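Researcher: Please translate sequence to structure tokens.
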Amino acid sequence: MATRKILLPAGIVLLLLAAWQAVVDIGWVDDLILPSPTQVATSLWEDRSLLGTDLAVTSKEVLVGLAAAVLVGALLGVAMHVSPAVRTALRPLVIGSQAVPVPVIAPLLILVLGFGLAPKVLLVALVCFFPVAINLYDGLRRVDPDAGKLMRSFDASRWQTFRLLEAPAALPAAFTGLKVAAAVSVIGAVFAEWAGSDSGLGHALLTANGQLETARAFAATFLLFVLAVALYGLFALLERRVVTWR
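Model: Translation complete:
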């Protein structure tokens, strides 16, 4: 079963790549507009020093921003669960934060915070903290009421109930939020780099498009895809190690 889960997606990807290569080779699409997979692979190798540096920059922005999002999101999720006053005050603001268009706010953050690491981290955190906070809050809220009654019958304190019942029960939902945040984290970094940066994969995309280096642009996009999938896979692996009772 595990082998099938790997082979089936891999086979689909290979078929899509073969079709893509055939379309370009036949000449149905100009390779200046759509480079072939082999051209993208060649760019990955020939531009590896440039793209490798940009990948390191974007990875740093994503990892720091994701860590900040996990910290803030977890604190907000727990606070909204524990305190009705905090829930009433902050839940509309948490939801409203996702209504702000990222491409609009990115230049404003660059203008206020400069061109350093801070605006990139803040934008990644803004994109990522919502799924962490909301999924953790929902997981804590959906704990079995009968289990809560059982804890109270044993005269458990509020902290003991949270530590022994609510937190473990909320872990599956929390990891769902973490995986979603990991998958979308690169979006915030790319928009921040587009708004103002001299390095990173988002900057590489803009530069390659301006120079009509479409193969390099596709190569940078591929690296963004790999980064997002790797982060998602890391949290999925961590979930299997931590949430063993599932």
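Researcher: Any highlights?
Model: The first helix runs from residue 2 to 26.
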